[in-house]
Structure formats: structure tokens, C-alpha cells
């Protein structure tokens, strides 16, 4: 056997022995179970909640605690990626500036670092818990956890234009009888994406708590309302929807989640260029934040079907380095606190030809067209 083939065999064997290396995780999750944000005129369950609107419940805390245990098992245990003891240089946690999101991050980190030895042993101190820093930005300037932020006026402008488009208007007209019924049953006007969303949300929260539904709110009615919510919400925010119309509004998709995508790519680029980086980024946010990103990936339907992202659902981006020094991305999703991660990398439209991991350069090239050169300048455009 010649020297070259011997070297070749050695090389092949070594790439089996020396495995691919996890380099960074960028994780986006939804807060846990909450109380409804809205009610409706004839809501029989309006007084059944003992917390204010939109508050994280103890079930919600538990859900994120379970997800934190899942993270601990994978990234502290199986992959030995981060230290289970608090290390101020490994994980950076950022949250939307909403109580339920901050509390969710706290519950999650309490589980992830439940083996931490870095804490005082003062009598009464909770065992193996330490306060973990969770960073926030004011909601109106939070372009990462608040889907482009509420200060980007162009988002509202493009959304209202989108809701005056013919296919969208026709979709509502086609469903006018059902909307009239919802209006009659609920006692408040249900006639557009916003009012559909509000009624949907109230019923969703009540169903999650097994409350007795008003007699009109049968499973069939719920399913129809749910589909209308999913379709109108996706379309309104820029995504083509088979049932409504065939065109994306790429600018809207980009304004909604391009800044978060830019942040992920920037964090991963720091790894690739060995530029000093956090190993683990956590973003504690909303269902709408997850959906906005999935709309850019064009995998809302293939990953979620007609479901909304569940409470405490996790969307994970792992950056790996293979034995030849190439970087690739694996995307995982956990639907809720009770569901293991599933591989969804090839559901991303930019990664469909890479079932074994999406090369970092291909990911970046494909999605760069969703990133605004100057986000705030674009937000200021009024034409
Ligand atoms: C994990 O952190 C603890 C506490 O700082 C430290 O004692 C330990 O050596 C660290 N383990 C590893 C593998 O770095
Ligand atoms: C609602 O019912 C389901 C099914 O019986 C149960 O698993 C769940 O824990 C209940 N949820 C609440 C909030 O009681
Ligand atoms: C992935 O990127 C490489 C170069 O970086 C390019 O040659 C190849 O065509 C890309 N593959 C796809 C499917 O876009």
C-alpha cells in the first residue's frame, strides 16, 4: 500500500474518531402558558382567571422549567457543550420586555443551571439556584424579540395595505357568513385579522385550561376559527397563503424578522472568524416572533401545519464545525414542553438540498436578501 493511500485511510478513520464539534447555539423560544390578553363582550369565562391579562401562569413556569431540563440534558449532559454551573461567559440571555417572557427565561434558566455550584450557601438560599442575568430592551426599540418593534411604522403601513388587497378581501367575503355568526355569538364585531386574532386568543387560553366553553364554541367552530386565524395572520404579515393569495410581501417578511436573522448570522460569523463570541444565545419571546422567522424560512406550514407555535416551543439553531473545518447549521424544533426536539433543517427553503446540515455560507447567502441594509431608514419610508 502506497504512502498516499495509507494517509488517506488514516484521514478517513480520524474523521470518524474526531467528531463534528458544536460551536454555538442560537435559541428562540415562546413564553409558557398565559392568561388571555383579550376578552369579548359575552365571554362567560371572563372572571375565571386569578391573574391579570397576559400573565404567565404556574403551568407556564413549569413548561419553561421542563424545557430548561431538556436543554440541560442535551447541552450540559449529552453534548457537554456548556458548563452546568453558572459561567458568566457562556450564555447570554435576552428577553422581550414583557413580564411573561422575562419570567419564562428565569424559569428556563433555573432548570438549565439547576446543577450550578456557583451560589452562596446562606441558610434559606434555594438549593443550586443562582440569579441569572436576563437582558431586555424597551419594546418599542426591540427589533429582535418584538418582530421588528412597534416603532417601525412601515410594518403597520404594509400590513394595512396587504389587508386591502383583493385576494385578502375576497377571502373574508367568502367567509362572511361565519364571521357574522361569530359576531352574533360573541357580541362583538369579528370582521378582520385583528378581531379574529383577539377572539381566537381568548378561546385558545380558555381551552388550554379546560374551561367550559359557551355552547356555540364547538370543536368545529373552533377549528374553522383557528384556520381563519392562521391564514389571515400569515397573509397579513407578508406570507403567501394557498387559501388566500399566492404572493409574498418580501419587504414585510424582512421587516418583521430580518433583524433577528441578521443577529443570528452576526453571532455565528463571530464563531467562524473566531472573533470572541458567546457559545449560547437565548431569546425569550412570543409565538409571533417564532412565526415571523418561520415565514422567512417558508416552513410555517411544513413545521406547524395549522397550529400556532405552542407554549414554550423552542426553535434552535446549532452551528457545527465538521472535521474538515466547514461550518454548517442544524435547526431543531420542540413543539411544546412535552415534546422532544425534531430535526427541521431541510424544511427551511434555503436548506432544502442539505438534509445533513445547512452549510453556513449557503444559509447566509440565501437569507441575506431578507436583511435590510438600513432597518430604521426603511421603517421611515411612507410611500
Ligand atoms: C464548571 O464550572 C465550575 C464552577 O465554576 C468549575 O469548578 C468547573 O471546573 C467547570 N467545569 C468545567 C468542565 O469547566
Ligand atoms: C386539561 O385537560 C387535559 C386532558 O385531560 C390535561 O392533560 C391538562 O392537564 C388539563 N389542563 C389544565 C390546565 O387543567
Ligand atoms: C452552496 O454554496 C456553494 C458555494 O459556497 C455553491 O457552489 C453551491 O451552489 C451552493 N448550493 C446551493 C444549493 O445553493
From TrEMBL:
Residues 1-19 form the signal peptide. Keywords: Signal. SUPFAM superfamilies: Phosphoglycerate mutase-like. The keyword Endoplasmic reticulum does not apply. Transmembrane segments: none annotated. GO terms for molecular function: acid phosphatase activity. The keyword NADP does not apply. It holds the Pfam family His_Phos_2. It catalyses: a phosphate monoester + H2O = an alcohol + phosphate. PANTHER family: ACID PHOSPHATASE 5-RELATED, ACID PHOSPHATASE-RELATED. Belongs to the histidine acid phosphatase family. This is Acid phosphatase.
Amino acid at each position: 500500500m502506497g504512502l498516499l493511500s495509507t494517509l488517506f485511510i488514516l484521514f478517513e478513520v480520524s474523521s470518524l474518531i474526531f467528531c463534528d464539534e458544536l460551536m454555538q447555539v442560537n435559541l428562540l423560544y415562546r413564553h409558557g402558558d398565559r392568561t388571555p390578553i383579550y376578552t369579548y363582550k359575552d365571554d362567560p369565562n371572563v372572571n375565571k382567571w386569578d391573574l391579570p391579562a397576559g400573565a404567565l401562569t404556574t403551568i407556564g413556569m413549569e413548561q419553561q422549567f421542563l424545557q430548561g431540563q431538556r436543554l440541560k440534558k442535551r447541552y450540559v449532559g449529552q453534548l457537554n457543550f456548556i458548563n452546568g454551573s453558572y459561567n458568566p461567559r457562556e450564555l447570554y440571555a435576552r428577553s422581550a420586555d414583557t413580564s411573561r417572557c422575562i419570567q419564562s427565561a428565569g424559569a428556563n434558566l433555573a432548570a438549565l443551571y439547576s446543577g450550578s455550584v456557583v451560589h452562596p450557601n446562606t441558610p434559606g438560599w434555594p438549593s443550586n439556584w443562582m440569579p441569572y442575568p436576563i437582558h431586555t430592551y424597551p419594546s418599542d426599540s426591540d427589533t429582535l424579540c418584538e418582530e421588528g418593534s412597534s416603532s417601525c411604522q412601515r410594518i403597520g403601513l404594509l400590513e394595512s395595505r396587504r389587508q386591502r388587497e383583493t385576494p385578502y378581501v375576497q377571502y373574508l367575503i367568502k367567509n362572511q357568513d361565519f364571521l357574522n355568526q361569530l359576531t352574533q355569538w360573541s357580541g362583538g364585531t369579528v370582521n378582520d385579522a385583528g378581531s379574529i386574532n383577539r377572539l381566537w386568543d381568548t378561546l385558545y387560553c380558555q381551552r388550554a385550561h379546560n374551561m367550559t366553553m359557551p355552547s356555540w364554541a364547538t370543536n368545529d367552530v373552533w377549528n374553522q376559527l383557528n384556520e381563519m386565524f392562521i391564514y389571515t395572520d400569515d397573509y397579513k404579515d407578508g406570507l403567501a397563503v394557498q387559501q388566500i393569495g399566492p404572493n409574498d410581501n418580501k419587504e414585510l417578511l424582512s421587516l418583521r424578522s430580518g433583524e433577528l436573522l441578521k443577529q443570528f448570522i452576526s453571532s455565528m460569523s463571530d464563531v467562524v472568524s473566531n472573533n470572541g463570541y458567546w457559545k449560547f444565545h437565548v431569546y425569550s419571546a412570543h409565538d409571533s416572533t417564532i412565526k415571523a422567522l418561520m415565514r422567512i424560512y417558508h416552513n410555517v406550514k411544513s413545521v406547524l401545519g395549522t397550529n400556532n407555535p405552542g407554549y414554550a416551543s423552542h426553535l434552535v439553531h446549532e452551528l457545527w464545525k465538521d472535521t474538515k473545518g466547514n461550518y454548517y447549521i442544524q435547526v431543531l424544533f420542540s413543539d411544546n414542553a412535552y415534546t422532544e426536539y425534531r430535526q427541521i433543517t431541510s424544511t427551511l427553503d434555503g436548506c432544502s438540498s442539505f438534509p445533513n446540515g445547512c452549510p453556513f455560507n449557503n444559509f447566509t447567502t440565501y437569507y441575506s436578501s431578507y436583511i435590510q441594509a438600513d432597518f430604521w431608514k426603511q421603517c421611515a419610508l411612507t410611500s
